[in-house]
Amino acid sequence: MAFWKPGTIAPGSVVERDAQNELDSSILTTYNSFSRLSLQDQRQQLPIFANRNHILHLVETKRLLILVGQTGSGKTTQIPQYLHEAGWANAGRIVACTQPRRVAATTVAARVAQEMAVTLGEQVGYSVRFDEKWDPIRTRIKYLTDGMLLREMMVEPLLQQYSVVMVDEAHERSLNTDIVVGLLKKVMRKRQDLRVIVSSATLDAQQFRDFFISGETIAEEETAILTLDGRVFPVDVHFRLEPCSDYLLATVDAVVKIHTLEEVGDILVFLTGREEIERAVELIEQEAKNVRNIPLQLLALPLHGGMSMESQLRVFEPTPRNTRKVVLATNIAEASVTIDGIVYVVDSGFVKLRSYNPQTCTSSLVVHPISKAAAQQRAGRAGRTRAGKCFRLYTEAGYDTLRSTNVPEMQRSDLVPVALQLKALGVWNVLRFEFLSPPPAEMLARAFEILYSLNAVDDYGRLTIPYGMRLAELPIEPMMGAMLFNSVRFQCSEEIITIAAMLSVENIFVTQSGRRKEADFEKRKFSVEEGDHISYLNVYKTFLRQNQSPSFCRKHFLNYKALQKAVSVRNQLLRYIRQFSLSLTSSHDATTIRKCIASAYFSHAAMLQSDGTWRTLRGAGMSPVLHIHPNSVLLKMSPACVVYHEVVETTKSFMRDVTVIEPQWLPELAPHFYTKA
DNA sequence: GAGCACTGC
């Protein structure tokens, strides 16, 4: 293939896969060359074992250790054990290891408990939302999501119970990881004894060190950067010689070329979204019919977050005989989901990213070029089980123009919840908080204006007690929290908790390509003219009445897993209601429920214009022209006045989760915001 | 008559 310019990357030079994958490679006997060894012998075979004493020495003598960990180095499972063996968990102290994802925290904890031959939940435990197994007295090593560590810090800001905190996957720059890192720097000022380990990728290790040594919190000589070798297979990386004008067609072309020219092995393709993936599947299926001289069948499978769990599971089934599987995936396959047997990766070089515009309170979902770090992560997906190849649909010069690491989530998020959480975590002056990547001061100032309008902070920017503190404690966004508190007054808290839970989960209605009409028909059975919120209430009530039956969901195109999550969220919210001693009352009057929604979402009210679009009532000149989202039950209706949960900008500015209201409610419910004309 | 990347509390 003269088409491709080869450029090998050395074994171990790909960015670390997430902790769960690291674990998979040692659990799955098929691919574990050490499987016949005892667990202790297996531990000593890991590349990291050679560094054990060095790591312990660094933790002993330095206060901050930055680990550049390669794939399969075993750092997530081994380092906490080394620290435990060396006595860092003596005298009632605990070694903590944070993860950005729930599955990683729980599965790694299970593996470590197994290696230490202890019962999970005793010496080794984990803590994630909805699920925890650890013992306040006995637990010595604790794996937790960084979000859970933040919750613990609301109660114990100095983390006195922990001797070492290891922040894993810090290079992903998730919102919570960044907040944890910023807070750890603050804690290190007050606790000389605390040890911090930050695990990251090559490209940003120095940035983490610079962050901690700035402001003389800790001296440079109190820090160390250590690079660990990994256990992965080499991946040949091929660039295009010429840029392509249409990466979708280039994708299909690349898949067909791999299929005809390369030896057996499954293909993983990275694209940006559902629509694109479905088109690519179609095109590949067409092309596959024309390939006649190959004994292998080509099986194209989509993989994206909008699919039901059972459809997603299809990509994990073993590839049938005489078949080559090609999985066309979104970013879900970059870190969250690992597919075995992938030998070839086709990388479009693009990703769909959500970013937030605080001026219009709008989030947009736009296709962006990926970062170099993400490109390496994607390439690494080909080297899991044996040597692989990665075909990049961009030139080497194009690669050089990519930014080195991901845009931190902090830079593209609504800062209202961040500001509220930092206040609740005891950060007195949020504008002076040391962020790893500081957001513009005016964006933080705007966040405080909104917190003030919600009565979460007072004239001086102080958190109100108990209201602001309670809003911060709730695991939902502040405006939704306000709706929850208002529901007590409207005497419909039962229904509002359900609605809040349903708004917290995505993709309640699943759509399978080709069965859209059926799905639409089923959806209409739950739909009411009042709008999406009340329709969700219907879905939830019916789901419970059907005893949370998976087959009921399948029959009616409902997402079983999403609904189960809604049940968990609702139970959690119910616990908060009880904790705050709020009364639980039920209302069968949809008008009351709609008024309650509008009482918190009054700033999200929009009026129908003569041209058939909507505009927000206040600041209409600034607000974009709004449309009802195609997923809304109100799509074909033209309600005169609505409130919406959020606006997402894709091809247009769409209002998602819309409820019909009467315009005269607004001056009654929010007189400070709307004055009667 | 069109659309929705992925996490987390």
UniProtKB/TrEMBL annotation:
<dbReference type="Pfam" id="PF00270">
    <property type="entry name" value="DEAD"/>
</dbReference>
<feature type="domain" description="Helicase C-terminal">
    <location>
        <begin position="250"/>
        <end position="426"/>
    </location>
</feature>
<dbReference type="InterPro" id="IPR007502">
    <property type="entry name" value="Helicase-assoc_dom"/>
</dbReference>
<comment type="similarity">
    <text>Belongs to the DEAD box helicase family. DEAH subfamily.</text>
</comment>
<feature type="domain" description="Helicase ATP-binding">
    <location>
        <begin position="56"/>
        <end position="221"/>
    </location>
</feature>
<dbReference type="InterPro" id="IPR027417">
    <property type="entry name" value="P-loop_NTPase"/>
</dbReference>
<keyword id="KW-0347">Helicase</keyword>
<dbReference type="GO" id="GO:0003724">
    <property type="term" value="F:RNA helicase activity"/>
</dbReference>
<keyword id="KW-0547">Nucleotide-binding</keyword>
<dbReference type="InterPro" id="IPR011545">
    <property type="entry name" value="DEAD/DEAH_box_helicase_dom"/>
</dbReference>
<dbReference type="Pfam" id="PF21010">
    <property type="entry name" value="HA2_C"/>
</dbReference>
<keyword id="KW-0067">ATP-binding</keyword>
<dbReference type="InterPro" id="IPR014001">
    <property type="entry name" value="Helicase_ATP-bd"/>
</dbReference>
<dbReference type="GO" id="GO:0016787">
    <property type="term" value="F:hydrolase activity"/>
</dbReference>
<dbReference type="InterPro" id="IPR011709">
    <property type="entry name" value="DEAD-box_helicase_OB_fold"/>
</dbReference>
<protein>
    <recommendedName>
        <fullName>RNA helicase</fullName>
        <ecNumber>3.6.4.13</ecNumber>
    </recommendedName>
</protein>
<dbReference type="GO" id="GO:0003723">
    <property type="term" value="F:RNA binding"/>
</dbReference>
<keyword id="KW-0378">Hydrolase</keyword>
<dbReference type="Pfam" id="PF07717">
    <property type="entry name" value="OB_NTP_bind"/>
</dbReference>
<dbReference type="InterPro" id="IPR001650">
    <property type="entry name" value="Helicase_C-like"/>
</dbReference>
<dbReference type="InterPro" id="IPR002464">
    <property type="entry name" value="DNA/RNA_helicase_DEAH_CS"/>
</dbReference>
<dbReference type="Pfam" id="PF00271">
    <property type="entry name" value="Helicase_C"/>
</dbReference>
<dbReference type="Pfam" id="PF04408">
    <property type="entry name" value="WHD_HA2"/>
</dbReference>
<dbReference type="InterPro" id="IPR048333">
    <property type="entry name" value="HA2_WH"/>
</dbReference>
<dbReference type="GO" id="GO:0071013">
    <property type="term" value="C:catalytic step 2 spliceosome"/>
</dbReference>
<dbReference type="GO" id="GO:0005524">
    <property type="term" value="F:ATP binding"/>
</dbReference>
